[in-house]
Amino acid sequence: MAKSKSNNKTLAENRKARHDYFIEETIEAGIELVGTEVKSIREGKSNLKDSYGEIRNGEIFIRNMHISPYDKGNIFNRDPLRDRKLLLHKREIMKLDGYTSQQGYTIIPLSLYLKHGRVKVNLAVAKGKKNYDKRNTLLEKAAKRDIERQMKQKYR
Asked: Model pTM?
C-alpha cells in the first residue's frame, strides 16, 4: 500500500506572529534564494522572528529574515540578514501596498515551507495587538481549555 505524501513541508514558523498581531489576510509567495540558502533552510537553520515585508519600487522584499550560512558553502554563502526579493504578481503587490498604506498595518511572514521542491513564504497582512488584546486572547484560550476539560470529565 502506497503512503499518501503531503506536498507541503513546514521548515520554519513565526509562532509569535499570531500572538502579537491580528491576522487580516494571508498570501503565498515565492522567494528568491541562492543555492546555499536553500540547503540551509532545508536543514532548518532559518529564523522568521522580527522579519517583515517592505514594498520598494513596485517590488516586495523580506527584511531581517535570518538564514544561517551553510556549513559546506564556503565562498558561496551570502549575508544571513540580506534583503530577499519575494515573487508575487503585480496586482498582489498593489493589493498589499494598499493595505500597508493604512495606519497600523504591516506585512509579516508566518511560515517557510516546501511546495513541490520550491521554498515558499506564507505572508500575512497584520495589525499589531495592544497588551490588553493579548491578555484577552490568553484569557479566552484558558477559558476554552477549562470548558473542554470539564466536558471531558462530564462524559467519562
From this structure: 0.73
